[in-house]
User: Fold this.
Amino acid sequence: MSLFTGHDLICIRGERVVFTGLTFTVRAGDAVLVVGPNGCGKSSFLRLAAGLLRPAAGTLAWEEADVWADRESHHARVHYLGHHDAVKPVLTARENLMFWGRLGEQHGTPLHRRVDDALARVGLDHLADLPGRFLSAGQKRRLNLARLLVVPAPLWLLDEPTTALDRETVAEVEAMLAEHRRHGGMVMISTHTDLRLTDPGYLQVADFAPATPAADVLGLEAEDALI
Amino acid sequence: MNGSLLDAFVGIVRRDLRLALRQGADSIMVVAFFVIAATLFPFGVGPEPNLLARMSAGVVWVTALLAAMLSLDRLFQADYEDGSLELMVLAPPPLMLTVLAKVTAHWLTTGLPLIVAAPVLALLLNMDPSGFGVLVLGMLLGTPVLSLVGAVGAALVLGARRGGVLVSLLVLPLYIPVLIFGVGAVDAAVTNLAVKPHLMLLGALLLAALVLAPLAAAAAVRQAVE
Assistant:
C-alpha cells in the first residue's frame, strides 16, 4: 500500500514565503484536488511534490522514506505535467511520445505498441505522423496526457491538465484518472475546471499562507528585509 | 538496468541529432562562421605566406573555440523554454547521463564538422603540411572538451538575460588550456619537436572534463529548473 506524505513543508520562492506548515497524506487510489486562488502556490506545491523544487523545511516522504535522500527513485514513480507542453515542433507526435517512452522504465509490451495505444486513447492516432508544430494547443495537451499512459507511474502530479481541452477530452481525462486510481495510482491535480472525480480529497493551499511577513519566518530583522 | 541506461543514452543522442538535422541550418552556420572568421585573418594581417604559416595553428584554434562557443545556446536553451528540460530532470535516467548524451549530440553536430573543415582552413593559411595530421588529432581530443566545458556554461546561464554574452565570459577563459596545447601540438609537429606531450595533455583535459563537466552541468540544470 503506497503512501505519499508531506510534513510541515515550507516553500520559499525568491524571497517570498509561499506556504508554511503544509502537511498532507495521499494513499493508493486517492485523488487530491489542489485548490486555491491564483498565485497561492498550487504550481509551486506540485513542483515541490515532484522533487523539482526543494522544500525550505519539512519532509516529503514516500512510504516513510525521505524523497530527497533518493531523488532518482522518486522521479521514476512520478509523472509531472506542468504548464509547458514539451512538444518538439520538428518531431512528429509519435516521435515525441516515443522519446519520452524510451526514457521511462522498460516493461513487457513493446514501446511502439504502448505509444500507439496511448495516441489512440487521447484521439491523436490519425495525427501520429504530423510534426508537432501543426498541433493545436489542445492537441499538444492531449499528447502530453498520452505521455502519462506510455510509461506507468504510481503518482501523477497534474498542473491544470484540462487547459485548452474540449469537453470530450475532459471526459476522457476523467476516465483516465478513474482507471489510474482503480489500479492503485495516486493523483494530485490543480485545476479551475470542474472535474468529476469520485470522492476526491482537497488541499487548500491558501490555508497555509504565512500569517507573518516573510522576514519573520527567515529570522531576519524587519529593517534587513526592507533593504 | 545497464541496458536501459544505454538505451536512454542512445535515445537522447538520436533525438538531439534528429532535431539538429531537421532544423537544418544550425550546424552549417557554425562551420560557415569558422571558415569566414579564419579567412578574415589574411585580409587583416596581409597575405604574407610566412607570417600566415606561423599564425595558422593559432588562427584555426581560436576561430574553432569561438565557433564552438556560438553553438552552445542550443544545447539546453530550447529544451529549457519548452519544458522538455524539466521532464528530463524528472525522467528515470540520471541527469548526468542525460547531460552527457546531449553533449555527445552537440559534439557530433558541431565539433565533428569543425574537424572536417580544419585542414581546409590550414591549407588556406599556408600551414606546413606536416602539421595537418596533428591539427586534426588535437582537435579530435580538444573539441569534445569544448562541448563538455561549454555545457557547464550553457546550463549556468539558463534563464539569464543576455545569456549568450554571459556564456562567453564564463566559458572562454576555461577554453585557454585547450588552445595552448592544441596550438602547441601543431607548432611542435611543424618544428620537428615531440608532439606526444601536447596530445597527452589534451587527452588528460578530455578525461578530466568527461568526469567533472557532466556533474557540474547537471547541478546547474537542476538549479535552472527549480
About this structure: DSSP finds nine helices and no strands in chain B. The two ends of chain B are 28 Å apart (CA to CA).
